[in-house]
Amino acid sequence: MKKFAALMLTALLLTLTITTTAHAAPSSSKADAIIATAKSLIGRAEYDFGTRNARRLIFDCSSFTQYVYAKHGIDLKWGTRYQKKAGTFVKKSNLRKADLVFFSSSSSSSAISHVGIYIGNGKFIHILDVNGSDVHISSLTSGKWADRYVTARRVL
To answer: 21: alpha, beta or left, given left = phi > 0 and alpha = psi -120 to 50?
Structure first.
């Protein structure tokens, strides 16, 4: 009887482990796919403020995130004022891959004016016209973006 009970307990624990793993994987793989889509636009997409032209790959920051997420079945409205309300709030210390990260135009302001996609390891990908290069990977922990970080949202 003890062997049977131990066997049943083991089977139950294995079932729970497999079920939990199966549910955790899609979110992680979807996040990686979103990041891969964003990275695939490096050297291909062009920045133009106030523009969303997916056919020609011309975006502003929020139409870039809108386009990338739409490729994976996630509908985001165009504009940081709408995207900052999407999904759920995330603390900076709890960021996960594919979270939206929001920034102000200066370190002395909390008004959101820019959005990007967190890619892990303290970095994010975004579109902005700087020195002729449009899609960038930047640090959240150093440089100008560290001082301009405002908030984050989880949409997965």
So the answer is: alpha
